[in-house]
Design goal:
The complex is a heterodimer of chains A (112) and B (115). Chain A is mostly beta strands. Chain A is 0% helix and 48% strand. Chain A has no helices and eleven strands. In chain A, strands 2, 4, 5, 6, 9, 10 and 11 form a seven-stranded mixed β-sheet that branches. In chain A, strands 1-3-8-7 form a four-stranded antiparallel β-sheet, with no helix packed on it. Chain A is globular. In chain B, the strands form two sheets. In chain B, strands 2, 4, 5, 6, 9, 10 and 11 form a seven-stranded mixed β-sheet that branches. Chain B has a four-stranded antiparallel β-sheet with strand order 1-3-8-7, with no helix packed on it. Chain B is mainly beta and 115 residues long. The chains are: A mainly beta (112), B mainly beta (115).
């Protein structure tokens, strides 16, 4: 199965600070159909995960544009340009290119 | 509004069975590919099973480690998806979510396997 390695495991930020989370895959996530099925989820405390970004860089409806995703092949990044209090929680990358779908271990974003 | 509501979780002894249900509304369930995903006590997320729609002959896929113990099914007339879990083990303890396309998740139902 594909292993997704997220770094850092924990991220401390102040409000307004820009931060990045890395997700590295054990295999290329470029599908033979040309799509790259790498997505990002946020799980706020006490809530179910929610989809933030799909197909590497596409913003899910209703997600603020301070979130952005980039990358290709095996290396991907989620960036938050100006952290807000509501952004605190655990971020997961997930891949759907190679069955079965697999998830990163998560990056916890907390307030400094 | 899309809604997914899981029920059926609880405390069960190792070796026993449990059936989870997920009732949905707010979207065309009959054409949706539905999934079960669980979150362990350590917060790790794990995809378990997917069932496709009628046009794809309700094709089913499982995580290898639960194949033979877990069975996913659906009832399009009730807009519901199910997960039958047999021979449960302590490591199956988790919150179980049903999801549609990763964009929509239920609130989850807690399954605890313990003697």
């Amino acid at each position: 199965d594909v292993v997704l390695t997220q770094t850092p495991p924990t991220l401390s930020a102040t409000i307004g600070q820009s931060v990045s989370i890395s997700c590295r895959s054990s295999q290329s996530l470029l599908h033979s159909n040309g799509n790259t099925y790498l997505h990002w989820l946020l799980q706020r405390p006490g809530q179910s995960p929610q989809l933030l970004i799909y197909l590497v860089s596409r913003l899910e409806s209703g997600v603020p544009n301070r979130f952005s995703g980039s990358g290709s092949g095996t290396d991907f990044t989620l960036k938050i340009s100006g952290v807000e209090a509501e952004d605190l929680g655990v971020y997961y990358c997930v891949q759907g290119t190679h069955a079965p779908d697999t998830f990163g271990a998560g990056t916890k974003l907390e307030l400094k | 509004e899309v809604q997914l509501v899981e029920t059926g979780g609880g405390l069960v002894q190792p070796g026993n069975s449990l059936k989870l249900s997920c009732a949905t509304s707010g979207f065309t369930f009959s054409t949706a590919w539905m999934n079960w995903i669980r979150q362990t006590p350590g917060k790790r997320l794990e995809w378990l099973a997917q069932i496709e729609d009628k046009s794809n002959n309700y094709f089913i896929s499982y995580l290898e480690s639960v194949k033979g113990r877990f069975t996913i099914s659906r009832d399009d007339s009730k807009s519901s998806v199910y997960l039958q879990m047999n021979n449960l083990k302590e490591e199956d303890t988790a919150i179980y979510y049903c999801t549609w396309s990763l964009a929509y998740w239920g609130q989850g139902t807690l399954v605890t396997v313990s003697s």
